[in-house]
Design goal:
alpha+beta, SH3 type barrels, five-stranded antiparallel β-sheet, globular
Length: 371
């Protein structure tokens, strides 16, 4: 049987990424981390042992190579062939023979030189993205791509460590609306759902309903994931009724991937099943906007429309000196209503009539609560 060189390359590249520069990591620790990321069936201790042997193999003149790495400069990196500048150290006094007592570490300053493939601009963007996803995902999920963020951090620090710290301290990703604590869910659950979606396999799940009762659902067809602040949802159906439903990831406690193939509906569209969407998919919204600052903000930062179009029409100056009417096709969601209420006295719904009536009912109800 021929070797799968693509898999071997990806596994060894990940090993190189996991080997630290300031501490040591053992073969067993590397194996455990790879099994956690890729699954126990796909990673064995024998594989990792062979990978480490090949990656750190010394030929004749080991001592000379070792001394060379100790004094390696960035300008010398082109002189390297094999082995890679990885230091091996006996961490327990006497090796057991299986390599479990050996620790691996990059020589100072070499890891970034050999593995860095990010430009400064890419590193800046990645570190800003990190702040954004930290507001939407549990820490355990963010940690799974931690090495990529660490690499970006090192690239920025190489430009200037002090300026790097100052820059990061002056970047803020502000949430829209009221900041809510992000939902905590098991990253292993998310990983299994993503795998099932990718492989188009059915899953069995154990979840907890709002009352705290456990539910076991078999032959679940995962149809999609909706990532929202602060919750995320699995969109699914169950044979034989195949009604599309959703469940928050924080309510899912166990996931088992089966061998059964999913039968995904041909007409399924994930955006039609986003939690919070109401009745029709879209509506034609007409807003009478009275506040010139709102008009300016919406022209600079337009709302997302279904057809990409925004129609602005000025009102008669004698009656409304600074008002305009905005007409656009938007998704019919709870978020739309919250956004309109957030405009306060600066805007009023003209059409559709059903939404105008609904907003009046909401405002009248709020008015009664405050009187």
């Amino acid at each position: 049987m021929s070797k799968n060189w693509s898999t071997i390359f990806r596994r060894r590249l990940r090993i190189l990424q996991l080997i630290p520069e300031k501490d040591f990591i053992t073969k067993n620790e590397l194996c455990g981390q790879l099994q956690k990321e890729w699954g126990e069936k796909d990673i064995t201790e024998k594989m990792v042992k062979q990978d480490l042997a090949d990656l750190t193999k010394f030929e004749e003149g080991d001592e000379e190579k070792d001394d060379f790495f100790k004094f390696l400069k960035p300008t010398d990196i082109g002189k390297l062939s094999t082995p890679l500048p990885i230091k091996k150290m006996n961490l327990k006094g006497n090796p057991k023979g299986d390599g479990s007592s050996l620790g691996y570490q990059w020589y100072p300053g070499t890891k970034q030189l050999l593995l860095a493939d990010l430009t400064s601009d890419q590193a800046f963007i990645l570190l800003m993205v990190k702040q954004f996803i930290e507001q939407s995902f549990p820490p355990e999920v963010v940690e799974q791509i931690g090495p990529l963020f660490n690499q970006a951090s090192e690239v920025v620090k190489q430009k200037n460590a002090r300026k790097s710290k100052n820059w990061l301290n002056n970047i803020v990703i502000e949430q829209r609306g009221m900041p809510l604590k992000r939902a905590e869910y098991d990253p292993i659950i998310l990983g299994k759902i993503n795998t099932a979606l990718f492989e188009q396999k059915k899953i069995d799940i154990k979840s907890v309903n709002p009352m705290g009762d456990e539910q076991f659902i078999k032959n679940v067809q995962p149809l999609g994931l909706v990532i929202k602040e602060p919750k995320s949802y699995l969109i699914y159906s169950v044979f034989p009724d195949n009604v599309v439903k959703n469940v928050s990831l924080i309510r899912i406690k166990e996931v088992q991937i089966t061998t059964a193939k999913c039968t995904r509906p041909d007409d399924f569209k994930i955006r039609d099943h986003i939690p919070g969407k109401i009745n029709d998919t879209t509506i034609k919204l007409q807003l009478h906007i009275l506040n010139p600052l709102i008009i300016q903000n919406l022209k600079e930062n337009p709302i997302e429309t279904e057809d990409g179009k925004l129609d602005w029409r000025e009102m008669p100056k004698e009656s409304y000196p600074q008002a305009e009417v905005l007409t656009c096709v938007v998704r019919n969601t709870h978020g739309l209503r919250q956004w309109i209420l957030g405009l306060e006295q600066g805007a009023v719904v003209l059409k559709p009539a059903e939404l105008r009536k609904e907003m009046r009912t909401l405002v009248d109800g709020m008015h009664k609560l405050y009187h």
